[in-house]
């Protein structure tokens, strides 16, 4: 079922999944149990998520109806960004890249698997 789902993703959604995979690799490797980190990330996601929702759906002359997952992503992204930043602080990261090549390769490999499933579906259905 997961393979079928990945195979049917649009290119844009596949990219978003790769971002999430990258986040999960870092999350698993550098998880921190500090409630302060997670509450701060949650607070930021609510504040920034509402701002993103308003700017995309309510701020223009024409109101835009967003899909449920679009709205969820508007709140998830600031949560992931703020917690990612806190998790990698003082750990030697350069931008978003781990100082450990194995972690970079793992994230890239997982994204490559998703991409290959996507490309196989595109080629078969074309």
What would you say this structure looks like, in words?
With 126 residues, the protein is mainly alpha-helical. The chain contains five helices and no strands. The protein has helices spanning 2-7, 11-30, 35-58, 68-88, 101-125. The two termini are 21 Å apart.
Question: What characterizes the major β-sheet?
Answer: none
Oligomeric nature of the chains: single chain
Give the number of DSSP strands: 0
- N- and C-termini, Cα separation: 21 Å
Beta-strand percentage range: under 5%
Structural class: mainly alpha
> What are the segments in which pLDDT stays under 50 over at least 5 consecutive residues?
none
Work out the radius of gyration. Answer: 17 Å
Total of DSSP H or I helical runs spanning 4+ residues: 5
Q: State the share of residues found in helices, binned by percent.
A: over 70%
SSE ordering: HHHHH
What integer is the average pLDDT? 89
